[in-house]
Amino acid sequence: MSYTYQVQTAADYEAAYAHATENPEAFWAEIAATFRWKKPWKTVLNWEFRSPSVRWFDGGTLNMTENALDRHVEAHPDRVALLWEPNDPGEATVSWTYKDLLERVEAYCHVLVARGIQKGDRVCIYMGMIPELAVAVLACARIGAVHSVIFGGFSAESIADRVLDAQASAIITCDGAFRGAKTIPLKSVVDQALSSCPEVHTVVVHQRTREQVDMMEGRDVWYHEALPVDLKPFPAVEMEAEDLLFILYTSGSTGKPKGVVHTCGGYMVWATYTFVNVFQYQPGQIHFCTADIGWITGHSYIVYGPLCAGATTLLFEGIPTYPDCGRFWQITEKHHVDILYTAPTAIRSLMAAGPEFPDAYPMSSLKVLGTVGEPINAEAWHWYDQHVGKGRIPIVDTWWQTETGGIMISNLAGVTEAKPTYATRPLPGIQPLLVDEHGAEIHGNGVSGNLCMRYPWPGMIRTTYGDHDRCRQAYFSTYPGLYFTGDGCIRDEEGLYRITGRVDDVLNVSGHRIGTAEVENAINMHPQVVESAIVGYPHDIKGQGIYAYVILHSPEKEDLRVEILAEVVKHIGAIAKPDKIQFVPGLPKTRSGKIMRRILRKIAEGELQQLGDTTTLLDPAVVQAIISGRASE
Ligand code: WTA
Description:
Elements: H1 10-22, H2 24-32, E1 43-48, E2 53-58, E3 61-62, H3 64-75, E4 80-85, E5 94-97, H4 98-114, E6 122-126, H5 131-143, E7 146-149, H6 156-166, E8 170-174, E9 177-179, E10 182-184, H7 186-194, E11 202-206, E12 220-222, H8 223-226, E13 239-240, E14 244-250, E15 258-263, H9 264-278, E16 286-289, H10 296-308, E17 312-316, H11 327-335, E18 339-342, H12 344-353, H13 356-359, E19 368-372, H14 378-388, E20 395-398, E21 432-435, E22 441-442, E23 447-453, E24 463-464, H15 468-476, E25 483-491, E26 497-502, E27 506-509, E28 512-515, H16 516-524, E29 529-539, E30 543-552, H17 561-571, E31 580-583, H18 597-605, H19 621-628
Parallel strand pairs: 4-17, 6-7, 6-8, 8-11, 11-12, 16-17, 16-18, 18-19, 19-20, 30-31
Antiparallel strand pairs: 1-2, 3-13, 4-5, 9-10, 14-15, 15-24, 21-22, 21-23, 23-25, 25-26, 27-28, 29-30
Bound molecules: 5'-O-[(S)-ethoxy(hydroxy)phosphoryl]adenosine.
C-alpha cells in the first residue's frame, strides 16, 4: 500500500497546506477517495460553528473495519497487524496477522449480536491492555455499536456516571488486569458500578488474571464460553459517514466529564492521514504507541490510525517501570520497533531513573520518536533525543486533544524541522489562530494568546453525547465563530507554535486531563469539608501536581488527609489524588464570592512575592493565613 497523500518533502508540505487551506473540499475528497466506501458521499463538508454543526462526507456510507481490516486482508493477509507485549516479560507475546485479527473481530461480532447488541447501541469497555481490547473495539465498530472505552484507573462511580450518561446497555471487562507488580480487580469494580445501572443487560468478561469473580446469572458471560465454536464471517454493517463511531469521556473546566463524540467517516480519514504523515509511516514498520486505549491517543494511534494504514501496531500491557525502568527500551529492542510514541511524563520519570537504562540498548531499529499529551520541557526533549534516539532520528512533538480526534500541530518526521519544546506547524487542513481575552485575533509572529481554530477538519468533535448545547458552550461560545482549544500558545518569530498549557480550570497531571471542579466536588462530599479549591503547580515528573486547599468544619479535629484522598479515589479514581492538601481557615474570594484562583496558584507555586492585587478581596487577611500554613510535601 502506498499513501498517495503522504508528503515527502518540506515543499510537499507547503503545497499540501496551501491546497488544504484554499480548497479544503477538493483536498479532503481526494484523500477520502483512497478509502473504501460502500456508497460515495454527496457533499464533502457542511458546517457552521455557532450551533455547531459539522458534517463531513454526508451521504457516504462505510464501515471503519473494512478499512482497518478487510482491505488489508485482501492485499497482504499475512502482514502482522497486532503485536502484544505482556506485563510480565517472561510471558509469551502475541502476534496476529491481518487475517487473524479479522477472524477474531468477526467471531467477537457474533458474541455481541447473540447478546442482542445492535447498531447504535452503546457499549462501555473497561479492560486492561490485552489484545482482546482492540478486538472488542473493532467488533463494536463492525456491528455499528458505539464504544465508550473507560480507562482502567477510574472508580466504580466514574464508570456508573459514564454508563448512565451514554445509556449503555452492555459492558465489556476482564476479571482483572496486570499493571506492573499489581493486579487490578476490574470485574468487581464493574459490579459495584452496575448496582446503579439497571439498564445494562450484558457484561462480557475476559479471563486474564484468573482471580475469583462473581458472575450474575443472565447478565454476565465469560467471553471464552460465549465464543462460537466455528469461525464464521460477519459482514460489516453499513454506517453513514456521520453515524457515531465512539464516545470518549474527558474532563472540562466545569461539571462532570463530557462524552466527546466522534463519527465514522471524518475520524477515519483524519486518524489515518495524520498517522501516515506525522510519523512518516512506511509499510512494514512497527509502531509502538505506549498510551492506554482508554485515552484518545490509544484510539487514534494504537487502533484506528495504524490499522487503517495497514501498519503493525504494538500493544503493551504493562507500565514503563516494571520490572525495571528499561522496559520500553527492552520492548523496542525485542520487537525492532520503528516508531516510538510516548508522553513527556514517562520520559521524565525514566530520565530520573538514569541514562544507564536506555544506554544499555542500541535501539538501532528506531526511525522516529514522538511525544504527546502535555508540553515537553527542554531537558526531557534532549534526554529523549540523546539517550533514546541516540541523537540520530527526528522527534515529533504532537499537539492535539480528545476533541480534535488526531494530531493538529506537529512537525512531520524528517520532513519539516523540529524545534525542541515546539509542536511547530499546523497539519494541512488546520487553520490555527491566536486570540486575546476579548477574542480579537493576534496577528503576526513573536506573539502569544489563546489557541483557536477557524475552520473545521475531518476528525473534529461533533457533539457532546446527550447534550449538544454543552458542546457549544464548552468550545464554541468563548469566541463566537471559533473552536476554542482551552490552551495558551506562543507563535515565535518564525511562525512556529509552542503550546504552553491550559488556560482554563483543567489540569494536565502526568498527561491526564483532570477538571479542578471534579476534584473539588469529590472532596466536598466528605462530611467534614466545608469547601475546597484545587489548583495545579509545577511538578518535576507529572508536569503538574494537584494542590488542594480545604476548609474543615472542625479543623482542630484529627488529620483528615487520608480520608480526603480516599474520597477522591472513590468518586474519580487514583489518578486524581491531590499531591498536597493544605487545611485553610478560608479561601481568597472577591466580594461577589468568586474564588481568586490566581492567588491560590501563586501560593502553591511558592511565588509569594507575586500575588498581585489583593485589595479587591473580601477578606485580605486570609491570604496571610494561607501563606503561613503552606503545605510542604
Ligand atoms: C495538552 C491528548 C503541549 C494540551 C492527545 C491539550 C499538549 C490537552 C500536547 C489534551 C503537546 C497535548 N504539547 N500540550 N504536544 N499534547 N497537550 O484530551 O493542554 O487527553 O489541550 O488529548 O493536552 O489532552 P487530551
